[in-house]
Amino acid sequence: ASVKSYAAVDLGASSGRVMVGRVGPGTLELTEAHRFPNRPVRVPEGLRWDILGLYGGVLEGLRAAGQVDSVGIDSWAVDYGLLDADGALLGNPVHYRDARTEGVAERVWATVPAAELYAATGLQYAPFNTLYQLAAARGSAQLAQAGRLLLIPDLLAYWLTGEQGTELTNASTTQLIDPRTGDWAYDVAARLGVDLDLFAPLRRPGDPAGVLRPRVLEETGLSGPVPVTTVGSHDTASAVAAVPADGERFAYICTGTWSLAGLELDAPVLGEASRAANFTNELGLDGTVRYLRNIMGLWLLQECVRAWGNPDLGELLRAAAEAPALRSVVDAGDAAFLAPGHMPERIADACRATGQPVPDSPAEITRCILDSLALAHRKAVAQAQALADHPVDVVHIVGGGTRNTLLCQLTADACGLPVVAGPAEAAALGNVLVQARAHGLVGDRAGMRRLLARTQPLERYEPRGGTAAWREAEARLTGRGAEPAAV
Ligand code: LFR
């Protein structure tokens, strides 16, 4: 048949899903086979991922997906599992929001100054970069026993196939990759005492990653051989691959738990100005660079909604749309919002600290969050263009946040640019398309994007009015003495 089916395993911070993409000449259809919650668990040692529960969800999803031509896996970045010499998992992977990395970066910078680290790896400072996690784990019994480190999607691929690899787009979030070469940053690793032999060999999107083990076929009811194909295993890499843009003059914002806002470039931007603005140079498909900034994203709202006992989200957003605009804003790039818990209070505190009215009702706080996200989107889109000398005419929003029409409109208003919103399941679509491309079904990146633009429902938002009100709100946050610590 000329139409093929691909299973995309896509694990986000709050849920995992197995989607089935059907790809043929001029066709691209995505359906959900199975969705399951991703609930981190707090044990006495700290915050952990329930990786066995997630793997169970993947198996159930593959069973629900039915017979497919290949499987691809993507997830959030930076986190990993450690294996012992027998290949067995040592403990539960640590969650990137765990507190173990507090104060660790400063220790690392005493050996390799932050500026040198940026020049060599191009990675933004975030406390959870794998490099800092490894520094935090130094001397632990578990790390001492480990013979192998597999990033989350690579760990699941290993359990499905028995084969080990380190996918490059996700490896680029470890802070151990040189974005100019797409190879390890050997010097940084050596100076910081990171044993690169812990990592399995690098592999790239499109590379074969083995076939489902007989036992997995049995458990999922599939008949073999079913190949696993390497995709952009960092969910953001897959999402950027699925931005339905035309040409190069576009910015993107991948929305969900995070907002990842920036540009697709041919080469990294490694200078001091870029470091000061905390832009990251993660790797994308085909040697591209994802030049972007991490913004707290809908995490801020998810945490408030949790604190409020899960009120109806639709109603909350309708009320927020009616609430006064830009009354108070917070810096949605501030690492102070990284940890879970007490989010309404932390937002109120941030408003108080900047001398703004303190939002009180859920509607007001929700409005404050959405205005703050739009403002952070504006800043990132503007700074990325200036730092990379790469002007844009349009902002593409992809991911779960595209369902939040107020956020999309506010982002258009704040940026003073048209926003094209969709697809919502960008990561899964990018995952599917890279598999299809590896099997010769779709063309180059531009061809993938044309197919998306033709087949996926997209919504366009025009900016309303000028950007003066947004500039004024921006000044409230930058007018202070100390810049907050960025993520
Ligand atoms: C989004 C994401 C971001 C990464 C963060 C932590 O899901 O992958 O790109 O910075 O999660 O891994």
Write a concise synopsis of the structure shown.
The protein is an alpha+beta fold and 487 residues long. Helices cover 38% and strands 21% of the residues.
Layout of helices and strands:
Blueprint: E1 4-11, E2 15-24, E3 27-37, E4 41-43, E5 46-48, H1 51-65, E6 70-75, E7 80-83, H2 104-111, H3 114-121, H4 130-137, H5 141-145, E8 148-151, H6 152-161, E9 166-167, H7 168-171, E10 177-178, E11 183-184, H8 186-191, E12 202-203, E13 208-211, H9 214-220, E14 227-229, H10 235-241, E15 250-255, E16 259-265, H11 272-276, E17 280-283, E18 289-295, H12 299-307, H13 313-322, H14 343-353, H15 362-388, E19 394-399, H16 405-415, E20 419-421, H17 426-438, H18 445-455, E21 459-461, H19 468-478
Parallel strand pairs: 1-6, 9-12, 15-19, 19-20
Antiparallel strand pairs: 1-2, 2-3, 4-5, 7-8, 10-11, 13-14, 15-16, 16-18, 17-18, 20-21
Helix pairs in contact: 10-17, 12-15, 13-15, 15-16
The structure holds beta-L-fructofuranose (LFR).
Through-space gap between termini: 47 Å
Subunit organisation of the chains: single chain
Tell me the number of helical segments per DSSP (H or I, 4 or more residues long). 19
Mean pLDDT equals 96
Name the structural class.
alpha+beta
Bound molecules: beta-L-fructofuranose
Strand arrangement across the biggest beta sheet: 17-18-16-15-19-20-21
Number of strands: 21
Low-confidence stretches: 480-484
Family: Belongs to the FGGY kinase family.
Domain Carbohydrate kinase FGGY C-terminal: 251-438
Protein name: Rhamnulokinase family protein
Pfam families: FGGY_C (PF02782), FGGY_N (PF00370)
